[in-house]
Every structure is written in structure tokens, then in C-alpha cells.
Fold:
Amino acid sequence: MSVKDDIRINPNELDKQWADLPDQFHNYFEEQELLAIEIKGKELSFELWEARIDCDIRKDPKKYCGSEKITEKQIGSIIKSDPKWEEMQLEILGLEKQRRLIMAACKTLDKKESSLASIQKLYLSEFYIAPVTEAEKDSFNSRLEEIADRNVRNEMKKRIKRKERENE
Structure:
């Protein structure tokens, strides 16, 4: 299933959605935590790589900039100009993006929980009342027909008035 399927409310499966919600929360939260740990690991690898390059530059500055003397700013520029620096930064950003999307899914599941609770209250208060006996069904259907007829009459009156205004 996809995130969109997980956050969507299906009114025909409210009980199943209530039952699945804790597992969905757990799965997304776990995935978000795993991504956070992976990001920390990548950041640590990046810092170690950066420290090694920094030491290499300080040991032999002539190899990197052609001069025996080197400034902190030059060291920073040399490190950032290395293709590996950009690659590692983009990898960390990609993981961070995934983590944020998972966090957004968790927040949306929280909203889904609130929505399911509201829908449940409506059902429990018998907001969604359906006719039960044949007499209720007949009464309900005749009432629907009356409403439909009245709506048709009102729409016809509106059309007649519009035509009268156009003809003036």
C-alpha cells in the first residue's frame, strides 16, 4: 500500500481503518526513526571524511594549493570543491527529505484518527439514519420524491425568470 492509501478514509471500511491505524502509526514512526539514525550515520561519515581531508591538506598544503602556507578559508574551499563533498551532502539531503515526508504522513494519520473519531460519533448518534420498516421506506421515498419535485419546480421558475430578464 502507498501513503496515499494509508491516509485516505474509506467510509465503507471504518472499522478496518480503526483497527489498522495503530499499526500504520507504528510503521511510519519506526521508518522515520530508522531514517533519522541513517542520517546521523551519514553525517558522522561525512564529518570523518571531512576531518581526514582537512588533515591531508594541512600535512601537504603544496599538493592542494601550490603553496606552503594555507588559510582556513582555503582549506574550507578545497574541501567543498571535492566532488565527494557534494555527493555526500546530496545523499544526506535526500534522506532528510524522506524523513520529513514520513513525518508528514504521521501528522496526516493523526488527522485521520480525529476524522475517524468524528465519523464514529456521527454514526453512534444515529446521524446516518436509514429507514428500517417498509412503512418508513415508503415514507422516506415519498419525501425524497417531494423534495425532488420541489427542486425541479424551483429550477423551472428560475429559468423562466432568467428568460424574462433576457427578453426585456
